[in-house]
Design goal:
With about 160 residues, the protein is mainly beta. The protein has one domain. Helix content is about 10%, strand content about 45%. The strands form two sheets. Strands 1, 2, 3, 8 and 9 form a five-stranded antiparallel beta sheet that branches. Strands 4-5-6-7 form a four-stranded antiparallel beta sheet, with no helix packed on it.
Protein backbone atom coordinates (compact mmCIF):
# COMPACT_ATOMS: atom_id res chain seq x y z
CA UNK A 1 0.00 0.00 0.00
CA UNK A 2 1.38 3.41 -1.01
CA UNK A 3 1.31 6.14 1.56
CA UNK A 4 2.75 9.63 1.49
CA UNK A 5 6.03 8.48 3.05
CA UNK A 6 6.53 5.75 0.38
CA UNK A 7 5.69 8.17 -2.43
CA UNK A 8 8.23 10.65 -1.04
CA UNK A 9 10.88 7.90 -0.87
CA UNK A 10 10.16 6.97 -4.48
CA UNK A 11 10.53 10.60 -5.55
CA UNK A 12 13.85 10.87 -3.70
CA UNK A 13 15.04 7.56 -5.19
CA UNK A 14 14.00 8.75 -8.65
CA UNK A 15 15.92 11.99 -8.14
CA UNK A 16 19.02 10.12 -6.98
CA UNK A 17 18.81 7.81 -10.01
CA UNK A 18 18.38 10.77 -12.36
CA UNK A 19 21.42 12.50 -10.89
CA UNK A 20 23.45 9.27 -11.08
CA UNK A 21 22.40 8.81 -14.72
CA UNK A 22 23.59 12.30 -15.56
CA UNK A 23 27.06 11.31 -14.30
CA UNK A 24 26.95 8.15 -16.39
CA UNK A 25 27.17 10.18 -19.59
CA UNK A 26 30.05 9.28 -21.91
CA UNK A 27 33.31 9.65 -20.05
CA UNK A 28 35.65 12.56 -20.50
CA UNK A 29 38.57 12.02 -22.80
CA UNK A 30 41.76 10.67 -21.32
CA UNK A 31 44.10 13.33 -20.01
CA UNK A 32 46.74 12.29 -22.54
CA UNK A 33 44.37 12.83 -25.48
CA UNK A 34 45.09 16.17 -27.09
CA UNK A 35 42.92 18.21 -29.41
CA UNK A 36 44.38 20.61 -31.96
CA UNK A 37 42.59 23.96 -32.18
CA UNK A 38 42.89 26.69 -34.75
CA UNK A 39 41.30 29.98 -33.73
CA UNK A 40 40.28 32.39 -36.49
CA UNK A 41 40.12 35.99 -35.27
CA UNK A 42 38.20 38.01 -37.85
CA UNK A 43 37.35 41.71 -37.99
CA UNK A 44 33.97 41.94 -39.70
CA UNK A 45 32.28 45.17 -40.81
CA UNK A 46 28.92 45.97 -42.36
CA UNK A 47 30.46 48.48 -44.80
CA UNK A 48 31.29 47.08 -48.24
CA UNK A 49 34.83 45.86 -48.61
CA UNK A 50 36.92 42.77 -49.18
CA UNK A 51 36.39 39.28 -47.83
CA UNK A 52 39.75 37.79 -46.90
CA UNK A 53 40.52 34.93 -49.33
CA UNK A 54 41.25 32.63 -46.36
CA UNK A 55 37.61 33.03 -45.26
CA UNK A 56 35.81 32.63 -48.59
CA UNK A 57 35.41 28.85 -48.34
CA UNK A 58 33.76 28.84 -44.91
CA UNK A 59 30.02 28.26 -45.47
CA UNK A 60 29.05 29.36 -41.94
CA UNK A 61 30.20 32.90 -42.72
CA UNK A 62 27.83 33.12 -45.70
CA UNK A 63 24.73 32.41 -43.58
CA UNK A 64 22.87 34.58 -41.05
CA UNK A 65 23.90 36.33 -38.92
CA UNK A 66 27.38 36.51 -40.46
CA UNK A 67 26.21 37.32 -44.00
CA UNK A 68 25.27 40.80 -42.73
CA UNK A 69 28.98 41.63 -42.76
CA UNK A 70 30.22 42.92 -46.13
CA UNK A 71 33.93 42.89 -45.29
CA UNK A 72 35.99 40.42 -43.27
CA UNK A 73 39.69 40.55 -42.46
CA UNK A 74 41.53 37.64 -40.85
CA UNK A 75 43.53 39.31 -38.06
CA UNK A 76 45.18 36.22 -36.62
CA UNK A 77 45.09 32.45 -36.72
CA UNK A 78 46.63 31.13 -33.48
CA UNK A 79 46.97 27.39 -33.01
CA UNK A 80 46.58 25.68 -29.66
CA UNK A 81 46.92 22.19 -28.30
CA UNK A 82 44.03 21.59 -25.93
CA UNK A 83 43.92 19.09 -23.10
CA UNK A 84 40.36 17.97 -22.36
CA UNK A 85 39.11 19.35 -19.06
CA UNK A 86 41.69 22.17 -18.96
CA UNK A 87 41.24 25.79 -19.99
CA UNK A 88 43.38 27.41 -22.68
CA UNK A 89 43.40 31.13 -23.42
CA UNK A 90 44.30 33.52 -26.16
CA UNK A 91 44.27 37.30 -25.97
CA UNK A 92 41.97 38.98 -28.46
CA UNK A 93 42.90 42.22 -30.26
CA UNK A 94 40.51 44.20 -28.02
CA UNK A 95 42.36 43.04 -24.87
CA UNK A 96 39.78 40.51 -23.76
CA UNK A 97 40.73 36.87 -23.31
CA UNK A 98 39.07 33.97 -25.06
CA UNK A 99 38.94 30.83 -22.94
CA UNK A 100 38.42 27.45 -24.63
CA UNK A 101 37.92 24.09 -22.98
CA UNK A 102 37.25 20.73 -24.58
CA UNK A 103 34.76 19.33 -22.10
CA UNK A 104 34.33 15.97 -23.76
CA UNK A 105 35.30 13.98 -26.82
CA UNK A 106 32.12 12.18 -27.74
CA UNK A 107 32.01 8.57 -28.95
CA UNK A 108 31.08 9.78 -32.44
CA UNK A 109 34.31 11.80 -32.67
CA UNK A 110 32.68 15.17 -32.09
CA UNK A 111 33.80 17.59 -29.38
CA UNK A 112 31.77 19.24 -26.62
CA UNK A 113 33.48 22.60 -26.14
CA UNK A 114 32.97 25.52 -23.78
CA UNK A 115 34.01 28.97 -25.02
CA UNK A 116 33.90 32.14 -22.92
CA UNK A 117 35.29 35.66 -23.04
CA UNK A 118 36.24 37.73 -20.01
CA UNK A 119 34.59 41.04 -19.29
CA UNK A 120 36.59 44.23 -19.77
CA UNK A 121 38.80 45.05 -16.78
CA UNK A 122 37.57 41.96 -14.92
CA UNK A 123 39.17 38.64 -14.11
CA UNK A 124 35.98 36.62 -14.34
CA UNK A 125 34.69 34.99 -17.49
CA UNK A 126 31.19 35.09 -18.82
CA UNK A 127 29.98 31.80 -20.27
CA UNK A 128 29.48 32.44 -23.93
CA UNK A 129 28.59 29.15 -25.50
CA UNK A 130 28.78 25.40 -25.15
CA UNK A 131 28.77 23.65 -28.51
CA UNK A 132 29.13 20.21 -29.97
CA UNK A 133 31.55 20.64 -32.86
CA UNK A 134 32.46 18.29 -35.66
CA UNK A 135 36.11 17.69 -36.42
CA UNK A 136 37.58 20.21 -38.90
CA UNK A 137 34.30 22.18 -39.14
CA UNK A 138 34.72 25.58 -37.50
CA UNK A 139 32.04 27.12 -35.33
CA UNK A 140 31.81 30.89 -34.95
CA UNK A 141 30.81 33.35 -32.26
CA UNK A 142 30.62 37.12 -32.62
CA UNK A 143 29.81 40.24 -30.70
CA UNK A 144 33.00 41.87 -29.46
CA UNK A 145 33.29 45.46 -30.72
CA UNK A 146 36.64 46.39 -32.24
CA UNK A 147 37.89 49.16 -34.57
CA UNK A 148 34.44 50.10 -35.87
CA UNK A 149 33.49 46.50 -36.52
CA UNK A 150 32.84 43.22 -34.76
CA UNK A 151 35.25 40.49 -33.82
CA UNK A 152 34.07 37.14 -35.14
CA UNK A 153 35.86 34.23 -33.53
CA UNK A 154 36.02 30.86 -35.24
CA UNK A 155 37.28 27.66 -33.65
CA UNK A 156 38.24 24.59 -35.68
CA UNK A 157 39.09 21.41 -33.75
CA UNK A 158 40.81 18.21 -34.80
CA UNK A 159 42.70 15.32 -33.32
CA UNK A 160 46.41 15.85 -33.95
CA UNK A 161 48.10 13.62 -36.51
CA UNK A 162 49.90 10.77 -34.83
Amino acid sequence: MMNTRNVTRLHVLGLVLAVAASFAAPALAQADEKVAAEVLVVLAKEEPGEIDPALRDLPALTRPPFNAFKSMELLSRPKLELTPGKDSEITLPNGRKLRIQVVQILPNGRFRVRVSINRPNERDYLPLVVVVASENEPFFVAGQAYQGGTLVIGVRLSKPAE
